[in-house]
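FAQ: What does a ligand-bound record look like?

Like this one, built around copper (II) ion:
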Amino acid sequence: MTKQAKWANMRQLAGLLVLVAVSGLAQAEYKLNFQQPATKMAQNVYDLHVWMMYICGLIFVVVFGVMFYSVFNHRKSSGRAAATFHESTKVEILWTIVPTIILLLMAWPVTVTLLEMRDASNSDITIKVTGYQWKWSYDYLKGEGEGIKFMSVLSTPQEQIHNTAPKGEHYLLEVDNPVVVPVGKKVRVLTTASDVIHAWFVPALAIKQDAIPGFIRDAAFRPDREGTFRGQCAELCGKDHAFMPIVVEVVSQAKYTAWVAEQQKKMAALIDDPNKVWTLPELVKRGEAVYLANCVACHQVTGKGLAPVFPALDGSKIATGPKAGHLEIVTNGKPGTAMAAFGKQLSDAELAAVITYERNAWSNKAGDLVQPNEIKAARK
Ligand SMILES: [Cu+2]
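The answer part, i.e. the structure of the complex:
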C-alpha cells in the first residue's frame, strides 16, 4: 500500500469513528451518572462515587501534567541532557507516603458506609426474596403484610421481545407483581435461590445482594421517597437472565396498608378448596395461565420447545404417556437439566391444572385429567 493510500484509509477510519460516536450520542439520552438515590445509603454510595471521581481526576491531572511538562520541556531537541540520578531516599519515602494517604482517604469513608450497609437489624418489614430461573418470588415474613406471598414475572409482551411491536418505555424492566413497601420504613430482604445463583440488584436503593441456593443472605434499605424503582438480576443465571427484572414500589403508609388488605383478600381467594373436584375445561383454562407464567420461556407457547436443550411437549412421550411419569417430572424436576422442580413453586391445584393442560393442548389428546388430590397424594 502506498503512503497516500494509507493516509486515505486512516482518514476514512477516523471519519467513521466520529460518525459512530455522534450517532450514539444522538440516539441514547445520555446518562453519565448513577440513578437518583432513593435511600440515605444510596446517597452515601453516590457521594462516595463522586468523591472517588474527584480523587481520580486530581491524580490524573497531576500525573499527566508533570508528564507532559517533562516531555515538552526536557525534550532532546531543546538541548537537554538526560539526568543520571538514582536511589533518592527522599523520593522513595515520598512515593510511599503519598499513595498511602490517598488510599486512607478513600478507604475510610468506604469502610464506614459498608459497615452501615451491612446493618440489617431492627427492620420493620422482612421480605424473603427467592430467585428462580427466571423470575422472583417474594415472601413477607415479618411486619405489616406478614404472610403475603407472590411470584413476580416479567410482563413485557412477547411481541416487543420479538420485534413485532414497538418497545415500551420500561422494556424488560416491568413485572406483573411489584414488591410494595411503605416509605420511611426499614425493609430487610433475605435473598436465596432455588436453582442457580441470582442477584437482587436495585441501584436506586443501593442493594446488590447475591441470591444463592442453600444460603440466606441479607440486606436492608429504608426508602426516603415514594416512587417506582427498577432493577435486574445481576448474576448470569442462564438463558433468560435478562428477563427477570425487579420492580420495587415505594408508597405512603396509607397506601401500603390498603395494598396489604387487598393482597390478603387475594391470597384468601387463591386458596383452593382441597375437596373440590375439577372438570377438564376448568383445569385446562387454569392450566394455560399457569403454563404461560411458568413454562413458556423454555417450552414455548407452541409447546414445541427449543431444541436441543428444551424438549417439545407437543407430542412428547411424557405428556401423552402415563400420568404418573408426567406428574413426577413436573413436581420433582429432572436433575442435571434446566427442568425445575415445580412442586416447590406451585400449589396442588396449579400443578394439576398445568399437567392437565399439557396433556390436552396442541396436538396432545390424552383426554385425561389430574385432580389436585392426586398431586397431594404423590407429594408424600
Ligand atoms: Cu437470575
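Follow-up question: can I read anything off the structure? Yes, for example: The mean pLDDT is 87.
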